[in-house]
Amino acid sequence: MIRPRIIATLFRKDMVDAIRESRVLVSLLTPIIVAVLYNFIFPEEKLLEVKAAYAGPEASAIVETLKARAETGQSVSLKLQHVATADEARRLVETKAADISFVLPDGVDDAIKAGRVPTIAIIQPELATGGGPGFVTSAVQAGVLTLAGRAPPAIITTESLKVGSADQGVMGQMGPRKYFVLATVVMMIGMIAVLAVPIMLTEEAEKKTLDALLLVGSYLEVIVAKALVGLAYVALAVAVMLGLTRLRPEDTITFVAGAGLLGLALIGIGLLVGGLFKSAQQVYSWSSVMLLPVIGPAFAVGLPVPDAVDAALRALPTSQGMRIMANGLAGKALFSDAWISFAVVGLWALGAYGLLAWRLSRSES
Amino acid sequence: MMAAVEVTDLQKHYGAVRAVDGITFSVAEGEVFGLLGHNGAGKTTTIRMLTGRARPTAGTATVAGFDIVHERDRIKPVINAVFEDPNLYERFSGRDNLRLFAELYGAPASRADELLETVALVFAARRKVKTYSSGMKQRLLIARALVNTPRVLFMDEPTRGLDPTSARELRALIARLAEAGTTVFLTTHYMEEADELCDRVAFLSQGRIVALDTPRELKLKQGERRATVLLQDRTEQTILLDDPADAARLDEWMRTGRVLTVHSQEGTLEDVFVALAGRAL
After folding, report:
1. Which of A87, A111, A227, B124 would give a disulfide with A118, using CB separation of 3.0 to 4.6 Å?
2. B121 to each of A270, B88, B115, B133, B147, how far by Cα in Å?
């Protein structure tokens, strides 16, 4: 029998109590610190950053063209600021708060359409460097041509390459920052599942508080509560990590499904592991041995590895979880056969909870 | 009156080891019942079975009228236990420990404050349990065990490791619980404690009950009925109360005014246990 009231009470207790345990706190904070570190070490994938300002009508089609060009390209990060006056636009360039600015006269769109040849002033430093000002200038020109009803004679795209980067695999497609931050997200799910959750469970048994809980609840209720706490920590920690590293999954449903399913499977394994140890300190001492096969595969997914290693990786929940989440983060199928990934992680979850149920039935007899 | 605990030929085997080997007894409602024995005699295993934590290998038992195997979920709301170890959430305050269990049992949160008063821990209600002394922790354990107002309270070595003052306070608390009608099922190493608190005691040795009666009857059955007489000339004389010759000697000393003091020397529960189990606790 499962009583929601008991589970909810234990859940609330563990959510508060677990992070007071220093070893659990370390398991939560370490991956976040690593992710933030990766976030600084590896550059933004958009190699060209442009800070632009403009004065004049805020909703001009020229501005919209500029924004659209920045969004469709993968290589430009445009920070566009609207200011009230031309003087303000000039001041921002003078103070280097903007790389370039431009001034649109009132009614510029209608004037161009009517063929009245309005003046658009572009303000840039005397010795403008980098591709940013050029990108803005060409986008403004394209916008003007469009308004005038003339198609550009050609579409010129710019691809900015990091010279010397030969990796064209998944890491190349995602960019090292996203790749390593994602691997660290998987690392965190692993640390919560096979370190924090087993510590929580083992500490209850070690300090005999489990005996007191079992007077009112069942072992199954205790286990379900711990699993839910693990999942809640996974959800919170992943959200915090994505927030700190400014990563936004393009396909949120796939990303969340991957993280949730992986968390569920690994927590099942963690709860099984927790039953093998007599003390929380033992779990902590053996954590590196347990974590290596759980976390390691996340950092090898998509990299050029021998076929045998690749086959082994495909059988592990972490690497398949990483594949699902990578697809979700990129918003496209970086890895094909997503259903196989879901099936593998799902089978691990079924196996772990099946074994757990078997062990529970033995422990209560 | 319905028995609070009814045990019939209860057994628990771990492989070839017979931890509990066919015990039979009953405990009346409101009775303080003591289960005494060496370490490994089967006391804790018996409590584990009666509280639904272990399944018996054979035999039957009911607690508060419910079968311990088939009605475990119905037993849980009407029993509670004080364990040998101070198994409290040390990072929580005393009040939060009690509130947690009040919530688990579906009791109002105000029950925590009532119980803190009962065990005289109001002054430390907000302090983390890890700062409590052993005696305070033991009182908090008892408060936690009362959170659901249990009909049957199991106590496993409740005064172990306590200083004499704390132990005395705890015994007084147990006595008050019994007076209020709670059935107390106690295991202890301390014979004096069992003698003072228990209405009846059972001696457990190697998984079997070797004696079960009131402390007085056990002492009368097993102990020697002797007295030590201190005479005016400061000599001590030991007399056997069942011996007619000794009775005549005592009568003579009394008539001639030679007796200063008389100390009865009935057997202790320890003596009884040694006689029955072959060694002291």
Report:
1. A111
2. 38, 15, 8, 11, 15
Last residue of a domain, one of A94, A114, A147: A147
Q: What DSSP element (H or E) covers B210?
A: strand B208-213
On whether any CB of chain A is under 8 Å from the CB of B101, the answer is: yes
Interface test with B, best of A215, A222, A364 (most B CBs within 10 A): A215
With CA atoms as reference, the chain B residue closest to A214 would be B53
Q: Which residues pair with B238 in a beta bridge?
A: B228
Decide if B81 and A5 are in contact by the 8 Å CB cutoff: no
Here the CATH number for the domain that contains residue A89 is 3.40.190.10
List the single residue in A with minimal CA-CA distance to B97: A13
Structure-token pair, residue A107: 């009614």
Query: Is residue A216 domain-shared with residue A105, that is, in the same domain?
Result: no
Which of B68, B71, B89, B140 has the most A C-beta neighbours within 10 Å, making it the best mutation to test the interface with A? B89
Instruction: Based on the fold, state whether residues A233 and A189 are members of the same structural domain.
Output: yes
The pair of structure tokens assigned to B184 is: 């107390």
What are the chain B neighbours of A23 within 8 Å (beta carbons)? none
Nearest to B53 among A9, A214, A216 (CB): A214
Do residues A122 and A56 lie in contact, with contact meaning Cβ atoms separated by under 8 Å?
no
- Cα radius of gyration rounded to whole Å, chain B: 22
Total domains in chain A come to 2
> Which pLDDT tens digit goes with each residue over B191-243?
888 988 899 999 998 899 999 999 988 888 776 678 899 999 999 999 988 88
| Domain assignment present for A318 | yes
ipTM here: 0.84
CA distance B128 to chain A (A): 12
The distance of Cα A360 from the centroid of its chain, to the nearest Å, equals: 36
| Residue A273 domain-assigned (yes or no) | yes
Name the nearest CA neighbour of A317 among A284, A283, A286, A293.
A293
Q: Which of B243, B239, B157, B208 is nearest to B23 (CA)?
A: B208
Chain position carrying tokens 């272990």:
B54
Q: Are residues A131 and A217 in the same domain?
A: no
Q: Are residues A193 and A94 in the same domain?
A: no
A98 token code pair: 């903007």
* A220 and chain B in contact, CB less than 8 A: no
B91/A contact by beta carbon, under 8 A: yes
**DSSP assignment, residue B57?**
S
Q: Which two tokens stand for residue A303?
A: 């990299």
| Predicted local distance difference test score (pLDDT) of residue B111 | 94
* Residue A160 within any structural domain of the chain: no
Q: In the CATH scheme, what is the code of domain B3-87+150-220?
A: 3.40.50.300
Identify the CA nearest to B43 among candidates B20, B11, B62: B20
> What's the one-letter identity of residue B85?
D
pLDDT, one tens digit per residue, over A235-284 is 998 998 888 888 889 899 999 999 999 999 999 999 988 888 888 888 88
Q: Is B85 on the interface with A (CB under 8 A)?
A: yes
Shortest Cα distance from A4 to chain B (angstroms)?
11
- State how far the Cα of A55 lies from the Cα of A33, in Å rounded to an integer: 41
